[in-house]
Design a protein that fits this description.
Blueprint (H helix, E strand, L loop, with lengths): L3 E4 L5 E4 L23 E5 L3 H13 L3 E5 L2 H10 L4 E5 L7 H11 L4 E6 L14 E5 L4 H10 L5
Parallel strand pairs: 3-4, 3-5, 5-6, 6-7
Antiparallel strand pairs: 1-2
């Protein structure tokens, strides 16, 4: 079975969910949660449709997700919440996702970060703080799942 969701350019996305034979008890493909991972995630995306879809996907995998539409709003939550992973769009109105990652990572040594960009990720990798990953949009859900499974939640 293969399921993929691609978050596209300019606030568009597409989801492909193949039908799988049902055994009655399992959840196929896209909504199968990676085990044993469960993280507290802050997700920042200014495009409401993309934000809602990714938030739903992360929650379906068992993560606790708080979503925000700006770096400034997400930054406030980072100060008061226990967070394992910060996911942000790279290009946001106001403070960029990269600026936010640099500020947050300087003070939170347990936190992991993930930037999502409509540009080629390779352009930004040399400029990323330690513990920050990057995925290009559109991205494959399987790639996101593997990345999340490789991260260790904060103790």
């Amino acid at each position: 079975r293969h399921a993929a969701m691609c978050m596209g350019y300019h606030d568009r996305f597409a989801a492909w969910c193949p039908q799988a034979p049902s055994t009655g008890s399992e959840t196929p493909g896209l909504f199968r949660r990676p085990e044993p991972l469960r993280m507290n995630i802050i997700y920042i995306e200014d495009a409401p449709d993309v934000r809602d879809m990714v938030e739903l996907l992360l929650q379906s995998w068992g993560h606790d997700v708080r979503a925000f539409d700006s770096a400034e709003a997400g930054s406030e939550a980072l100060q008061s919440d226990k967070v394992d992973l910060l996911i942000s769009d790279l290009e946001l109105p106001g403070m960029s996702g990269l600026e936010l990652m640099r500020q947050v990572m300087a003070h939170n040594h347990h936190l992991h970060g993930l930037l999502l960009t409509g540009h080629r990720a390779e352009m930004y990798r040399p400029h990323l703080p330690e513990r920050v990953h990057i995925l290009s949009k559109p991205f494959d859900v399987d790639e996101l799942q593997k990345l999340l499974a490789s991260l260790t939640p904060a103790a």
